[in-house]
Specification:
This protein is of the alpha/beta class. It is built from six helices and nine strands. It is globular. Belongs to the PNP/MTAP phosphorylase family.
Length: 270
């Protein structure tokens, strides 16, 4: 893997990806942050050596480099999921590349369903902790200790300082936010009524199909990270209606301006 990481990194440096400070992973329906970036370089995933390809129709599939809020950022416009047929190493390969390029902080966004029925569709939730229900680990491969401690500590996977800062930013801008536990499942099917009940019992406030593998690798690399969910549907097992993916994307789009404000203002402080 180290040989591949070196080749990928050298390719991106040759394309103008010059010492980014912050890495950003954009989730479903949250791509307009790109409009606020002064872009100086970009690379399609299919041109980057050893990168997977984004197969989800609403994930664009580009790595973007530029300036946002006065900081150099590298942005994944489109991420990878287990349900696309990739393994954990594929999914998290871009995190290792952004780290190799030089990022010091990682910001992650996603769309998720609200298990906690006190939370509503359109709310933004800061992820304070997570439950990995994806059936594996991005650290379970031969030679992982070359990249960091095999038994990575996960007692505090999300950076407390960034959480406190983004909470203050939200208060200053009158943005209502929640904070809770994110459960990551394989997908791509949505959950049954019984599965939603189980998720509530085990302590999840929201459920999605991403983020946790990236966060595990960030912790493995001692890379401070923050993750935020846009809650796009309410998962009430006693009143469960069919979910339209287009509706999920639309809800994420309506919440996007708040997410852009939170991320942009946070980046100014880093």
């Amino acid at each position: 893997m180290q040989k591949h990481i070196t080749e990928t990194t050298e390719y991106l440096i040759s394309k103008g990806f010059d010492k980014p400070e912050i890495g950003i992973v954009l989730g479903t329906g949250l791509g307009k942050l790109i409009d606020d970036i002064e872009i100086t370089a970009e690379a399609h995933y299919n041109n980057i050596p050893y990168f997977p390809l984004a197969t989800v129709e609403f994930h664009t599939g580009k790595l973007i480099f530029g300036t946002l809020a006065g900081k150099k950022v590298v942005v994944m416009q489109g991420r990878f999921h287990l349900y696309e047929g990739y393994d954990f190493v594929d999914i998290t390969y871009p995190i290792r590349i952004m780290h190799q390029l030089g990022i010091q902080k990682l910001l992650v966004s996603n769309a998720a369903g609200a298990i906690n029925l006190d939370y509503k569709k359109g709310d933004i939730m800061i992820i304070d902790d997570h439950i990995n229900l994806q059936g594996g680990s991005p650290l379970a491969f031969k030679g992982v200790s070359q990249f960091g401690e095999r038994f990575a500590d996960m007692s505090a996977p999300y950076d407390a300082n960034m959480i406190a800062t983004i909470e203050k930013i939200a208060a200053d801008h009158n943005i209502d936010i929640q904070k809770g536990v994110y459960a990551s499942v394989v997908g791509p099917q949505l959950e049954t009524r019984a599965e939603y009940r189980m998720l509530k019992i085990i302590g999840a406030d929201a459920v999605g199909m991403s983020t946790v593998p990236e966060v595990i690798v960030a912790n493995h690399l001692s890379l401070p990270c923050l993750a935020v969910s846009v809650l796009t549907d309410e998962c009430d097992p006693d009143n469960l209606a069919p979910v339209d993916i287009e509706d999920i994307i639309a809800v994420a789009g309506k919440a996007e301006p708040k997410m852009i404000t939170l991320f942009s203002e946070l980046i100014k402080t880093l």
